[in-house]
Design goal:
Oligomer: single chain
CATH class of the largest domain: Mainly Beta
Radius of gyration: 22 Å
Number of helices: 9
Number of domains: 2
Number of strands: 15
Helix content: 10-25%
CATH topology of the largest domain: Immunoglobulin-like
CATH architecture of the largest domain: Sandwich
Order of helices and strands: HEEEEHEHEEEEEEHHHHEHEHEE
Shape: elongated
C-alpha cells in the first residue's frame, strides 16, 4: 500500500501540485505562496555494499522553486528574505527516514573510494541527512537555473525502523526572515539498492562465469559476487599493458583488482576505469576520474548514456554471449522499484543482436 501512496505523491508533483503540513505554533501561513519540489531522478540507485567496489554513492538531489503571491517565480531569495529547508516526514504508513546511520557501510569506505573524509549522514557534495533530531537542512539557490537545490543527500532505502522503503518523503519548508512559514510541500526521494549480479556471479552459480582461479566463496553474499566480478576482470585483463597502466594510475595492486581488495583491503571505484556519465553528472566535479586508452573491438556496438565529449571518452569492454543475454536483461532486477532504470555504466555489447543490450536511457552508437 505504501508504494501506491508514494507513487500517487509523485503523480501530484508531476502535476505541479503541493500540499502543506501544519506549521509550528506561532508561525502564520501565507497560503498564497506556492512551493514546488522534486527529486532530480525518477530513481537514484546506490550500492548495497561498498567494501569491494562502488558503482554509485548514496546521492539524491532535491530541486525546489518558490512562487510568490503575485504568481512570479522567486529568483533572488536573498533579496526577498526567504529560505527553503528539507527534513524527514512520515508517510501515511508512518515510515520516516531522517538518518542513514547504521543503514549502509558507505562511510566506512568513502575515503579510499571517493577521496573524501565525510562524517556519517554527510553527503559527498556537502548536503546532509536531517539526523535523528530531524534538524531542517538548507537548500542552496542556483541563480542560473532559478531553483533551490540540495545536491547529493545520502539517503538510503531503509527507514528509521530499519524497514525497506524505496520511496521516503522529505518535507520542504519556505520561510521568511521572521520565521513565518510561507509554503510547504512533501516530496519523494526515490532510492534503490537493488543493483545485483548474483544470478551470474555468485559462487557456484553460472559455470560460464566461474573465475579461472575458482569462486570466491565469501560468506557475505554481497561481497561474494562482487569479488567474483573482480576475479573475472583479472581473468580477462591481467597481463594487458593498458590494464597494468590503469591499475597503477588508480593506485590499485599490480596483481589485479581482486588482490587490491582481498590483500590490500582497498575497495575499487568502478568509474576509475569505466566512464559513468550518470556518476559524472550527479557528482558534478566531486569525483576525479582516470581516463586511459580505450579498449575496443571492431565488432562491438558501443552504448552511451549520453554523447560523450572527446576529452572524457572512455569505453568498457564487456563480453556478453547470446546465451547470457536473458540474464543481462534482468540486471539490475527491479523487483520492488518496478519503474527503476539503474544502469550505471556504459557497456560495449559483443553480441550479434546489439538491441539485446538496451535501456530506455541509452542510445546505441556503432563502433567504426
Amino acid at each position: 500500500m505504501r508504494k501506491f501512496v508514494n507513487l500517487a505523491a509523485i503523480t501530484l508533483l508531476a502535476l505541479g501540485l503541493s500540499w502543506a503540513a501544519a506549521p509550528a505554533a506561532g508561525n502564520a501561513v501565507r497560503t498564497a505562496w506556492t512551493l514546488v519540489g522534486w527529486n532530480n531522478l525518477g530513481m537514484h540507485c546506490m550500492d548495497a555494499d561498498y567494501s569491494v567496489f562502488s558503482i554509485l554513492p548514496p546521492f539524491n538531489t532535491i530541486h525546489a522553486q518558490l512562487i510568490d503571491p503575485s504568481g512570479l517565480l522567486v529568483t533572488n531569495p536573498a533579496a526577498r528574505g526567504v529560505t527553503v529547508t528539507y527534513q524527514g516526514v512520515a508517510d501515511p504508513a508512518l515510515s520516516i527516514n531522517r538518518t542513514s546511520a547504521g543503514k549502509t557501510n558507505f562511510w566506512d569506505w568513502v575515503k579510499p573510494l571517493y577521496g573524501a573524509a565525510v562524517p556519517v549522514d554527510m553527503g559527498l557534495a556537502g548536503h546532509a541527512m536531517p539526523g535523528t533530531s530531524n534538524v531542517p537542512q538548507p537548500l542552496d539557490f542556483d541563480p542560473a537555473s532559478g531553483w533551490f537545490i540540495a545536491t547529493g543527500i545520502p539517503i538510503t532505502p531503509i527507514d528509521d525502523a530499519y524497514a525497506a522503503n524505496p520511496y521516503p518523503l522529505m518535507h520542504l519548508v519556505a520561510k521568511d526572515t521572521a520565521g513565518n512559514v510561507l509554503a510547504t510541500t512533501d516530496i519523494v526521494l526515490p532510492v534503490s539498492a537493488e543493483m545485483d549480479c548474483r544470478a551470474c556471479h555468485s559462487s557456484g552459480s553460472a559455470p560460464a562465469a566461474r573465475p579461472t582461479r575458482g569462486w570466491a566463496w565469501d560468506a557475505d553474499g554481497q561481497r561474494d559476487y562482487r569479488l567474483n566480478i573482480l576475479l573475472a576482470h583479472d581473468d580477462r585483463q591481467l597481463g594487458d599493458g593498458v590494464y597494468a597502466t590503469t591499475l597503477a594510475a588508480a593506485g590499485y595492486s599490480s596483481r589485479g583488482l581482486y588482490a587490491t581488495v582481498a590483500s590490500n583491503g582497498t575497495p575499487v571505484l568502478c568509474a576509475a576505469c569505466h566512464l559513468s556519465d550518470p556518476l559524472l553528472l550527479v557528482l558534478a566535479g566531486h569525483l576525479p576520474v582516470t581516463v586511459t586508452t580505450p579498449l575496443l573491438a571492431s565488432n562491438a556496438t558501443l552504448v552511451f548514456f549520453s554523447p560523450p565529449s572527446s576529452s572524457t571518452r572512455f569505453f568498457n569492454r564487456v563480453s556478453i554471449p547470446e546465451s547470457r543475454s536473458s540474464a543481462v536483461s534482468a540486471c539490475p532486477p527491479a523487483t520492488v522499484t518496478s519503474f527503476a532504470t539503474c544502469a550505471p555504466l556504459a557497456i560495449a555489447c559483443f553480441t550479434t543482436s546489439p538491441a539485446r543490450c538496451r535501456s530506455p536511457s541509452l542510445v546505441t552508437v556503432p563502433v567504426r
